Amino acid sequence: MRWQEVQELLPEEWVVLEATKAHSVEGFRYIDEVIVIDKCADSTEALRRYSELHRQEPEREYCFFHTSRPELVARERYVGIRGPRFN
C-alpha cells in the first residue's frame, strides 16, 4: 500500500507500519510501500507497539508515523555491535 492510500484510509491517525519496499539515499530511508499493522491513539502507544513488534521480529522493518506527514522519510541511524556512536 502506498502512503497516500494509508492517509486516505486513516486520516489524522498514528499508525504502525511494516515497510515492504524502501530505499536509502544519503542517510535517509524513503519508504515506498507499507502494510498497516496497527493504528494507535497517540505517539506513546505507537512507540510501545513498534517496540513490541521490533523485539519479536528485529529483522523486519517496522516504523510508526502520523498520517499528517506529507511523505514517509526517516533518518537512518547506524547501530553497530556496541550501539550507536556518539562523538
Supply Rg: 13 Å
Mean pLDDT: 91
In total, how many domains does the architecture comprise? 1
User: Number of DSSP strands?
Assistant: 4
Identify low-pLDDT runs: none
Which percent range describes the beta-strand content?
A: 35-45%
Strand order of the largest sheet: 3-1-2-4
- Tally of alpha and pi helices: 2
The assembly state of the depicted protein chains is: single chain
Largest sheet: 4 strands, antiparallel
Shape: globular
Helices and strands: which structural class?
Answer: alpha+beta
Q: Approximately how much helix is present in the residues?
A: 10-25%
SSE order: HEEHEE
Distance between the termini: 38 Å
Offer a quick outline of the entry.
This protein has 87 residues and is an alpha+beta fold. The protein has helices spanning 3-9, 43-56; strands at residues 14-25, 28-40, 62-66, 73-75.
Task: Give your account of this protein's structure.
With 87 residues, this protein is an alpha+beta fold. The protein has one domain (3-75). The chain is built from two helices and four strands. It has helices at 3-9, 43-56, and strands spanning 14-25, 28-40, 62-66, 73-75. The protein has a four-stranded antiparallel β-sheet with strand order 3-1-2-4. A hairpin with a 2-residue loop joins β1 (14-25) and β2 (28-40). The model has no long low-confidence stretch (mean pLDDT 91).
